[in-house]
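yo

u said u wanted the structure for the complex thing, so here. seqs first:
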Amino acid sequence: MARRTSIRGPLDYGKSPWLILFGFVTFIVLYAPIAQLIVFSFNDSKRNIVWRGFTTKYYAKAWNDASLVEAFTNSITIAVMCTVIATIIGTATALWLWRFRFPAKAAVEGIMALPIVIPEICMGVAVLVLYSRVGHWMRGFESGPIYWWNELFSIWPLNLGAITAAHIAFSFPFVAIVVRARLIGFNRELEEASKDLGASEWQTFWNVVLPFMMPGVVAGALLSFTLSLDDFVITFFTAGPETNTFPVKVYSLVRRGVSPDINAASTVLIVITLVATIIAMRMQAPSKSEG
Amino acid sequence: MTYIPKFHASRRSVLKGSGAAFIGLTMMPRFALSQEEKKLNFYNWDTYIGETTLADFNEASGIEVKMDLYADNAELFAKLKEGNPGYDVIIPTNDYVERMMAAGMLDKLDKSKIPNMSNIADAFKDASFDPGRNYSVPYMWGTLGIGYRKSKVKDASSWKAVLAGDENAGRISLLGDGESVIGVALQYLGHSFNSVVPAEMKAAEELLIAGKKDVKVYADDNGQDLLASGEVDLAMEWNGDIIQVMSEDDDLSYSVPKEGSLLWQDCVCIPKGAPHPDNAHAFINYLLDADAGVKIADTIQYATANAAAKAKMDEAYTGNPGIFPPDDVIAKCEASLYSEEKTKLRNESWTRIQAA
Amino acid sequence: MESWKQNKVVFWVTALPGVVWLLLFFLIPLALIWGMSVGEKTSIIDIEITGTLDNYVRSFQAVYLKIIWKSIWISIVSTAVCLAIAYPIAFGICFSPARWRPFLLLLVILPFWINLLIRTYALIAVFRTRGTLNFTLEWLWNLAFLDRLVGPFQPLELLYNNGAVIVGMVYVFMPFMVLPLYATIERLDRSYLEASLDLGASQWRTFFSVTVPLTMPGIVSGIILVFIPMLGMFLVPDLLGGTNAIMIGNVITDQFKAANDWPFGAALSFLLMYVTFAALALRAFVSARIKGAVGV
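structre next:
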């Protein structure tokens, strides 16, 4: 990505001491509870209210809790599948609404905002009702293609498909909004210039439009990953005994007080994310200097 | 299409007991097979089973139990209402047993498969909400009461301490469950827990609104944590939750107020559409076993309805008035009765109380 | 903007995925729920669609309007605080060295990959009467000998009030504000800022007359992404609020769970959506006027 990097003087806000101080304080506030959580994951107390000594036994406990590990794996799998598909659909939708003029566009835009507007619990129940009706009908088949379809979709990770589909439905409009906010500043002459120079529609998209909207796409992808990974309400209504996710598991566990093994599992999640990101950034670095 | 027959073959081999390579294969086992696979999906409250019970049962029967947790009865009901997503055994509380029976959401138990039903204490062999015990087996029972910090609270023998507790203003937590809170307020005013008489309901609502200024929070089943962490000095809570924190803090105590309280009973049931009903019966039978019951009661410290297990427990458990209240206390307690009208009225009233 | 007839292939390729997905996994289930909102409970589990408006009429009782109003003002205050914090953060990230940007962005998001509930409980552990913050303050208090001069430290009662709900909301929804802001500020053409400064405008003037209008799309989408979900939030008021904490999200949740009154829950949900749409329409109207005034 071509970026203007050499800005100095009055526009060098990145070096403003006030901004740095503000950012610093914000990050401390943001991370204070996280630090607390990490510290308490080593606390030798079941109830986790006061410090009772250092232990790592809750890490072992979390690791040996098969259902916790399974829920954890399910959550990550769903979040990844959801992010990929929701980002693609959301970006396409943003392009569509940004580029074209068509009848009843305002209405379509309103409908696209619905998943953001609707209370989560209402969508959860709506999806529950839909799935149970469809499921009821589909289970009536004892052979034939729908039977095979049922069988196929009971294998991991396809059995997570129902949850993932619902996650995509509520997260892609978020992606679309973010990408579209980015696209508003795009100079369409660049696109025309590209086509005048003989590039196809696809080449123009890939080489001109996509690089421009990339920060929006990345922000959208992060949003949808966050939404999916943290969703409890909608997942609760779509999950069955074989398809529990981490938030659903956690929700049932912490209502009666957070136990240290949950803190331990969360700490592991933070570490995994950090390590994965640092690796990704390292891998990305050389290709950046080439481009 | 080519891999589907192969998949079918592997499914059979899984069912022969060769392992759980495919986690998700249990969704539709009831169509093709008469023999049940060795699996069971158990939907339970958190911290509500013995530490080794599931492993012990697996060893005894070869059935692998998978346990999911729910936080309250309403959640359980909402999740099963549109159809059972695959659970075999659930543990609803008495009024929800009644509600789910009325909605046709429970399977009738085959008592010939549960010989250990003879271990049930006499008082629980029959139940008003399930005459003849055709749908439910009693598991644990208990009371609602006041958990309090002895050094800070003079008198917790009446609901007055939490409902009109000027002395401890701002140091009180009530349950977030409107039905129970309003029921207890009714009892304090000398009415029935289950009253739907408009004038009585209105008086209870006014009492709770007037008492709001002294209440710090309506806690969702974590009053014991608020109490243990010193956030409040008085908490309306379930007895077992308070007894658990009492073991870590000598300054805490539990009382069942003299006006009477709620007496509840959690029951083991099989929801309609359970994929493994045979295993479910075997599991219920195992829960009623004397030794298994001892291990469960030992862990969760609630009053067991399993007389054979109680007989084997030590004095510290059976003699604890917090767990087994004296008969005169029980005599004043009431069970919550199910009625759609009551649920609706209580819920509306609770919304008004919170918004006031 | 081009007419859809000019390039039908691209039009359909970009339109269909979103439309089809939304229809199958959102609009159809939503229609089922909408049906319930004009239906009646005929038994514990059965709901018959009768076309009644009773559920909506019931929603207009004073108590529910009062709760809706409260949800709106809590959400407005929380959104404003969120924007006031997120804007400088997003701004700072955009103006930091390029190689730092992904890392800083990640630093903002990372806390949000921890489960909402765990995070909120961690927040409670920090802020409660005998929590980390009060212990730290007490330690500082004693360190400064204030315990001998003024008297023993009185712990702050920070939880279980409306302030705690607002802090919790801001904490939960921060990334939803930072990300769209980042996406727009990042593409801000800095030559406008240079021009403004060159022409003698102060930094503040440049910020309010140039930067803010140019990043308006990001601000608006951030506000939408934060304000609307806040309206329907129920966990935060549940966990952090005091006895008055009830918001419309809690009432709706109650209808679908404890009260077992799905038709009424559905009606309340749709009422909330109608309110939001009114707000969005107002937003479109206002932004059209701002655009006209600023000439962007």
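Chain C touches chain A through 102 residues (CB under 8 Å). The longest strand of chain C covers residues 39-41.
cya
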